[in-house]
Amino acid sequence: MIGGFSTPKKDKAMKSSGGKLVKTGEILVRGIDSYKAGVGVRGLGTLFAAYSGKVYFTRKKTSHGKVRTFVNVAPQAKKDK
Prior knowledge:
The protein is an all-beta fold. The protein starts with 12 loop residues before the first strand and ends in a 6-residue tail after the last strand. It has a single domain (12-75), classed as CATH 2.40.50.100. The protein has no helices and 8 strands.
């Protein structure tokens, strides 16, 4: 346990679940390669919201027959003041 190397990393995980409201720049997924960026999401290893809205997931089949899960953000309606 010298230096804590035998402790598993805890930073790789889903940070936001489906239906959650997120702000611009909020991290959605970190370090999981099975999730890909969809609409309103940017990044490769760390996926973050491009704008404020609600998180939802879609599944699509690639041309090679593999199913991918995409993380998307639906834009939030602006409130009139």
